[in-house]
Amino acid sequence: MGKNRLTKRILALSLAAAMVLPVWARAAYQDTAGHWAEPAIEKWSGDYHILNGYEDGTFRPDATITRGAFAGILSRFLKYTKEADASTFSDTAGDYWESDILKLNAAGVYLGNNGQALIYHNISRQQAVTMIGRAFGLAETEGELPYADGYVVQDYAKGYLLTMYNAGYITDVGLDRCFRPETPITRAEVVNLLNSMISELFQDSGTYTENVEGTALVTAVDGAEFSNLTISGDLILAPGVTGTVTLRDVTLTGTVRNLGTGIVETITTPQEQPVEEQPAEDPEREYPWIEADRTAVDGNYKVSVYDDLERNTLTADDFYWDDRGRLVCTNEDFRTRFGIDVSAYQNRRCPNNTIDWEAVADDGVDFAMIRVGLRGYSGGTILSDAFGTQNIDGAMEAGIETGVYFFSQAITVEEAIEEADFVLRILEEHEIDGPVAYDWELGTTSYRAHSLAPEIATACAVAFCQRIEEAGYQPIVYMGKEVGYNKYNLPQLQDYPIWFPEYRYPVSSPERVYPSFYYQMDYWQFCDGDTRYTTAEVNGITGPVDMNLQFIRRK
Predict the structure, then answer these.
(1) Strands of 200-202's sheet, edge to edge?
(2) Distance CA 97, CA 84 (A)
(3) Displacement of CA 18 from its chain's centroid (Å)
(4) CA 505 to CA 227: how far, in whole Å?
(5) C-alpha–C-alpha distance, residues 186 and 41, integer Å
(6) Threshold 0.85, pTM exceeds
(7) How far apart are CA 292 and CA 296, in angstroms?
């Protein structure tokens, strides 16, 4: 090691020690009183110790930060664990910041320049914004930058900068409306940016009961529990979180952004409600709002018959179980495709919470429906599926036709549109080539949607599908008999394919079986992943999985 390299390493160690030592609690620094960033410094230095002061009692808010030191801040902040290969950069071996830089590189945050990390170069404002955007998984926004010097901003930073500007994260622009992209970012500017993005930071495992005004970031590796409170922004799980974050009776205004492998568990305490009549048990119950041509009876259900809708002509003679527990259709009027649908439940059974999509494809799976989100059945909060985007990308890369579904509990048209927009925001960043399904279910009387009037339930389904169709995707509607017969006015939904669930299992139903819905469905979910009833499995997924057939009429 040369003299200059050794000197830099000693200086780096000294600087690092000064930056992480919580010498002055509550940000009582000699040089921050009256500074424009004083409140943010007090919070992120005094409270959270993300960027601390120096041993001489100063914070040096206007001092610049090197690329290596900035990597150290993000690494400590988000608790990265996986490192890239030590040979990734030619100038990091043995350096104090080596581990942090390699962790950020493995996460796709710190990319370097021509094979060098340039550790002791000051990090510019546009470089810092880009790294933060990557670290927090922000989408890049296309458009013109609203800065007088926007033309100077490099292409790699434009999308993240516009996203942060639109979100109100960038607040330190002067009267000249210049962003100053190539100017080194200061310690105060870093703290201010973090303060604009995150309202509260949860670094320790435990139970929290006070409301969060804004976005909450969990960095506690083992997770945390939020109980009986409201989060008025997003909930973000840092990449280093591997435990469970429990939302117990929590109202979340925004969405969950899971940047790592942690698990989000939502628990809603059922409210005492009077037991309501179950309409499915009364075949004589009338639905006068439905103007049917006539009626028919399907077991305990009264069916409104519409002559313009295609009747289901499939019979028990059209199906048999193969030796792997999969149904095979022999009806010559249709060709069929075999598919599965998955959610976080399947991921959590798999090693490293990861489905082996290549193995799934090799096992004869033609299509996959991926859950991307859900609305809580009691509180009504919209949540992301913890592994939805991971599954989309994995299935698409494996060459499997990939669609998505959203578990709805919409009780107004506005909520149904909100759910569709939630799905479309996800699809802006993740390509699919299959349909988008509206999965609205009744469940028990504790479900918020259980007693919804049929005309409103139908209007919600129509609104969701129209929104999806307008965006260029094929909407389909998931419906069992209770919903299809008693909650939906089917003529209003006749332009959208039907995904019908009715479970049959080789063990309990060894005889010939068929889907018994009165109308022709386009997809049949014939087997679910409940381990109590089935052992039907697909290579690449640990444990049982929901299985489906798609029916395509031959011309």
Answers:
(1) 200-202, 216-218, 235-237, 256-258
(2) 13
(3) 38
(4) 39
(5) 12
(6) no
(7) 10
- CA–CA distances in Å: residue 321 to residues 501, 505, 507, 527: 17, 9, 10, 12
107 three-class SS: coil
In angstroms, the CA 138 to CA 374 distance is 21
User: What is the amino acid identity at position 6?
Assistant: L
Query: CA 181 to CA 184: how far, in whole Å?
Result: 8
Region class of 353: left (phi > 0), else alpha (psi between -120 and 50), else beta: left
| Positive or negative: CA dihedral 87, 89, 94, 97 | negative
3-state secondary structure of 138: coil
Strand partners, 341: 369, 546
Q: Contact 103/81 with Cβ under 8 angstroms?
A: yes
Torsion of CA 473, 479, 485, 487, to 10 degrees: -80
Q: 540 near 360, Cβ under 8 Å?
A: yes
**Element (H or E) spanning 371, and its range?**
strand 367-375
Give average pLDDT by consecutive 10-residue segment, the chain, 555 residues. Answer: 38 40 51 88 85 87 95 91 94 95 95 95 96 92 90 94 87 76 94 90 92 91 91 90 91 86 81 40 44 80 91 93 89 96 86 93 97 84 89 97 96 96 96 97 78 93 97 97 93 97 78 90 87 73 92 92
Residues 479 and 521: their CA atoms lie apart, in Å, by: 10
Residues sharing a CB contact under 8 Å with residue 123, sequence separation 6 or more, in sequence order: 64, 65, 66, 67, 70, 131, 184, 185
Q: What angle do CA 157, 158, 159 make, to 5 degrees?
A: 100
The Cα–Cα gap between 384 and 259 comes to 12
Name the DSSP letter for residue 116.
B
Other CB atoms within a 10 A radius of the CB of residue 351 amount to: 8
In sequence order, the 6+-apart residues with CB closer than 8 A to the CB of 532 are: none
H-type helices in 350-412, by residue range? 357-362, 388-397
Identify the CA nearest to 225 among candidates 173, 264, 282, 184.
264
Q: At 47, phi and psi to the nearest 5?
A: -90, -45
DSSP category for residue 284 = T
Q: What are phi and psi of 326, to 5 degrees?
A: -115, 140
Which two three-digit tokens encode residue 204? 């320790």
Residues 6+ apart with CB under 8 A from 69: 15, 16, 19, 97
